[in-house]
Amino acid sequence: MGSEKVIDEKNQGQALLTTKIEGNNKKLYIESYGCSMNLNDSEIVASILSEQGYNTTHLLEEADLVLVNTCSIREKAEQTIRKRLEKYNAVKKINPTMKVGVLGCMAERLKAKFLEEEKIVDLVVGPDAYRDLPNLLAEVSEGRDAVNVILSKEETYGDVSPVRLNSNGVSAFVSITRGCDNMCTFCVVPFTRGRERSREPKSILEEIKQLVDNNYKEITLLGQNVDSYLWYGGGLKKDFKNASEIAQATAVDFAQLLDLAATEFPKTRFRFSTSNPQDMSLDVIYTMAKHENICKYIHLPVQSGSTAVLKRMNRQHTREEYIELVDNIKRILPGCSISQDIITGFCGETEEEHQETLSLIEYVKYDFGFMFAYSERPGTPAAKKMPDDVPLEVKKRRLNEIIQLQQKYSLYNTERFLGKTVEVLIEGSSKKSDKHWKGRNSENVTVVFPKGDEKVGDFVNVFVENCTSATLLGKKI
Ligand code: 5AD
Ligand code: SF4
């Protein structure tokens, strides 16, 4: 799916730290929930507002403007944001001139209704309307509420250079597509982020160059569905199908984009997320095999191991086709790690269908997983057409079974590195001990080891001596 995983609770509410541009005297507090795409969008928003006199702050109490970039993927994500608005309300009592804006998926879903439901909100802006922020803020400063939730067929923010917030100075995100055309029946994303569009390769490569020039070492190419990336001059993909032969001959697909980036920046590590099984081509897998600097990790959401459930979800592949893709990955890229997203208790899911999901996990032996109980989202095809009929206790029990099994395979997979040497990009101090560094290997496993005279951003070889299901422990060699 969806890059929301990328989208989700993992990035809960990071207050994004801070920019200082000389002469800017207004203070923006921006907080981002949900996926990496949202984080990257917040960086685009900070960039647009830096030209309107705003520097970011991490102190809510001193903010002139508070923006919260929201996620709608599950009901719980929305509840978290409602709670956060209560906190802003309390702060507004001591800072009454502070303005509050809601950005992102929840803004798009609820539109002007947000202003009625949450009195604290002055501004509602959907994911394709951030360029309009200066005008909307002018309205707000004149005492009017402001809303722009128009979705676009063209907007990619390709020319906006994101202000890198909350960054370790080593890894950064670069968006390559926006929106999603897949219409999985459970998913709110096509409604909140609109139609799929790809960004021009030139602007992607320029952004990467800027990052590389600023010493970034690892770049993650982002999109709801990166494998369906296709540049043929802009606009919607369906128009391309009727386009001329010349347009088709000069088009750039995801495998070609990866190849261009990995060739032009051989010292930079590349990752990408998210891959949609039906769109992942063998060309992408061969391109990964060709370049050592493309990390050997594929996030490949499956959602269910049952072909019947996949059909109800409107996923465009069967269990067997997914297995064939996994077999190809394992054949062409031995040792490549694979992770999943799985939803338990989707409409009508039987015990047998649940067992098929468990057996798929056993077959693939995923390295990581992101697992969720189905949460009905208003307006989606599933909400309109299928009853949410699996009782909550059953969803939770199945979720638990899936998590337990995944943990077994996560440990199985970290154990394969014991006694081996892995290359690690140092990202910062370990959370548990500032005497240890933390980084990741190519397969996206976190590696922790004692500090020596290395620094953040160095690539080092680490001999793995021990592991948990999530972390490798070792020493530099
Ligand atoms: N309920 C539960 N999980 C969902 N996801 C998307 N929509 C829903 C929903 N309605 C999960 C999918 C997706 C991930 C980002 O979030 O597994 O891949
Ligand atoms: Fe992912 Fe499907 Fe949602 Fe698109 S519609 S974002 S592919 S889950």
How many helices? The count is 16
Number of domains: 4
**Bound small molecules, deduplicated:** 5'-deoxyadenosine, iron/sulfur cluster
- Sheet bearing the most strands, described? 7 strands, mixed
What's the topology here?
Elements: E1 14-15, E2 26-32, H1 36-50, E3 54-56, E4 65-70, H2 75-94, E5 99-103, H3 104-110, H4 113-117, E6 123-125, H5 133-141, E7 146-148, E8 171-175, E9 177-178, H6 189-193, E10 197-198, H7 201-213, E11 218-222, E12 230-231, H8 237-241, H9 245-249, E13 252-253, H10 254-264, E14 269-273, H11 282-290, E15 297-299, H12 307-312, H13 319-332, E16 337-344, H14 351-364, E17 368-373, H15 381-385, H16 392-415, E18 421-429, E19 436-440, E20 446-450, E21 459-467, E22 471-476
Parallel strand pairs: 2-3, 2-4, 4-5, 5-6, 6-7, 8-11, 11-14, 15-16, 16-17, 20-22
Antiparallel strand pairs: 1-2, 9-10, 12-13, 18-19, 18-21, 19-20, 21-22
Helix pairs in contact: 10-11, 11-13, 14-16
Bound molecules: 5'-deoxyadenosine (5AD) and iron/sulfur cluster.
Write a structural description:
This protein is α/β, with parallel strands linked by helices and 477 residues long. It has four domains: 11-148, Methylthiotransferase, N-terminal domain (Rossmann fold), CATH 3.40.50.12160; 167-295, 2-Layer Sandwich (Transcription Regulator spoIIAA), CATH 3.30.750; 297-386, 2-Layer Sandwich (Transcription Regulator spoIIAA), CATH 3.30.750; 421-476, OB fold (Dihydrolipoamide Acetyltransferase, E2P). It has 16 helices and 22 strands. It has helices at 36-50, 75-94, 104-110, 113-117, 133-141, 189-193, 201-213, 237-241, 245-249, 254-264, 282-290, 307-312, 319-332, 351-364, 381-385, 392-415; strands at 14-15, 26-32, 54-56, 65-70, 99-103, 123-125, 146-148, 171-175, 177-178, 197-198, 218-222, 230-231, 252-253, 269-273, 297-299, 337-344, 368-373, 421-429, 436-440, 446-450, 459-467, 471-476. Strands 1, 2, 3, 4, 5, 6 and 7 form a seven-stranded mixed β-sheet that branches. A five-stranded mixed barrel has the order 18-19-20-22-21. A hairpin with a 3-residue loop joins β21 and β22. α10 (254-264) runs parallel beside α11, α11 packs parallel to α13 and α14 packs parallel to α16. The protein is globular, with a radius of gyration of 22 Å. The chain starts with 13 loop residues before the first strand and ends with a strand. Mean pLDDT is 93; it is low at 1-12.
